[in-house]
Amino acid sequence: MTWLDVPAPWAMRLQDAASPNQEGIHELYDHIMFYLALVLGLVSYMTIVIVKDFTKNKFAHKQLRHGQTLEIIWTMFPALILLLMSFPSFILLYLSDEVLTPALTVKIVGLQWYWKYEYSDFVNKTGETLEYESYIMPDDMLEEGNTRLLDTDTSIVLPVDTHVRFIVTANDVMHSFAVPSLGIKIDATPGRLNQVSTLMERTGVFYGQCSELCGVNHALMPMKMQCVTMEDFLTYLSELSE
Amino acid sequence: MAIAPITGTLRRKIITDISLAFGCGFIFAGLYWEFEHKPLVQKREAFYAQLKAQKEAEDSV
């Protein structure tokens, strides 16, 4: 089975989910599409009937000045549809906002035009926090299988099935940290710490792009996240701390 | 001769029209649910069930 973890040409749907948040977004998307299809069928039928009935009937609307029943119907029905769409949407919104007992915290700093990642829970042998920068891979350095404008020289490495908290900020202008496969999009604002959490349910490589217009190279500061097993994560950490 | 007011057109057809319109809507929506949503969820659930079984097998070794 192949997962859609990067944008693909002519792709119609959202990228595949790798976290419960994104699965919730998929469910919401399908619920809203259900109502959309319902409204499409209803409006199409009504349009055809109106065109058919009134094209040759010049006098049908001659005495029609207002129609209270009709107005009640066309006000109540859209209101009902909006209510049906808004409740699941609010539930998901507030569930996504919860940050429950994270096992690991990663600090993410947005800069013009790269990202800096900091594993705030760990220090290296000299007692400094583990941190590094991540720049886009230039076109002339891309290798077979790399994704243009999405691959970076270093990536955030995180363990699977672990509650991770991201603390996001910026150093110069506003940026936005977004990873579609995880259903994350959070503003990186100078002087402010925003937090969001995730739980990756499967291993893989997930990509994202800065989602707040931050200057001339806004398109050139992607983020790459590698989700690995806990053993591989610990190996990575020990290599990083040396 | 004056043309008599044409009234009651809404009342006469409204039940039929709204029922048929909702029928069309529910057919579209049902098709989307059956042929788009359900297979995707099924595929996803099957993958995670298989992943869980695999993890349990690895843990039991």
From TrEMBL, chain A:
Catalysed reactions, semicolon-separated: 4 Fe(II)-[cytochrome c] + O2 + 8 H(+)(in) = 4 Fe(III)-[cytochrome c] + 2 H2O + 4 H(+)(out)
UniProt topology in membrane: Multi-pass membrane protein
Protein keywords: Copper, Electron transport, Membrane, Metal-binding, Mitochondrion, Mitochondrion inner membrane, Respiratory chain, Translocase, Transmembrane, Transmembrane helix, Transport
Span of domain Cytochrome oxidase subunit II copper A binding: 101-239
Record CDD domains: CcO_II_C
Cofactor field: Cu cation
Cofactor note: Binds a copper A center.
Molecular function, one GO term: cytochrome-c oxidase activity
Pfam families assigned to the protein according to its UniProt record, in alphabetical order: COX2, COX2_TM
PROSITE patterns assigned to the protein according to its UniProt record, in alphabetical order: COX2, COX2_CUA, COX2_TM
GO terms for biological process, alphabetical: ATP synthesis coupled electron transport
Gene Ontology CC entries for this record: mitochondrial inner membrane
Domain of life the protein comes from: Eukaryota
Keyword Transport: yes
Domain Cytochrome oxidase subunit II transmembrane region profile: 6-100
InterPro entries: CcO_II, CcO_II-like_C, CcO_II_C, Copper_CuA, Cupredoxin, Cyt_c_oxidase_su2, Cyt_c_oxidase_su2_TM_dom, Cyt_c_oxidase_su2_TM_sf
Record SUPFAM superfamilies: Cupredoxins (SSF49503), Cytochrome c oxidase subunit II-like, transmembrane region (SSF81464)
Physiological role: Component of the cytochrome c oxidase, the last enzyme in the mitochondrial electron transport chain which drives oxidative phosphorylation. The respiratory chain contains 3 multisubunit complexes succinate dehydrogenase (complex II, CII), ubiquinol-cytochrome c oxidoreductase (cytochrome b-c1 complex, complex III, CIII) and cytochrome c oxidase (complex IV, CIV), that cooperate to transfer electrons derived from NADH and succinate to molecular oxygen, creating an electrochemical gradient over the inner membrane that drives transmembrane transport and the ATP synthase.
Family statement: Belongs to the cytochrome c oxidase subunit 2 family.
Protein known as: Cytochrome c oxidase subunit 2
Species of provenance: Australozyma saopauloensis
UniProt lineage: Eukaryota, Fungi, Dikarya, Ascomycota, Saccharomycotina
UniProtKB/TrEMBL annotation, chain B:
Superkingdom to which the source organism belongs: Eukaryota
Transmembrane annotation, as ranges: 14-33
Keyword terms of this UniProt record: Membrane, Mitochondrion, Mitochondrion inner membrane, Oxidoreductase, Transmembrane, Transmembrane helix
Any one GO molecular function term: oxidoreductase activity
Subcellular location: Mitochondrion inner membrane
One BP annotation, GO: mitochondrial electron transport, cytochrome c to oxygen
Pathway field: Energy metabolism; oxidative phosphorylation
Topology versus the membrane: Single-pass membrane protein
GO cellular component, one term: mitochondrial inner membrane
PANTHER family to which the protein is assigned, alphabetical: CYTOCHROME C OXIDASE SUBUNIT 6C, CYTOCHROME C OXIDASE SUBUNIT 7A
Task performed by this protein: Component of the cytochrome c oxidase, the last enzyme in the mitochondrial electron transport chain which drives oxidative phosphorylation.
Family membership: Belongs to the fungal cytochrome c oxidase subunit 7a family.
Name of the featured protein: Cytochrome c oxidase subunit 9, mitochondrial
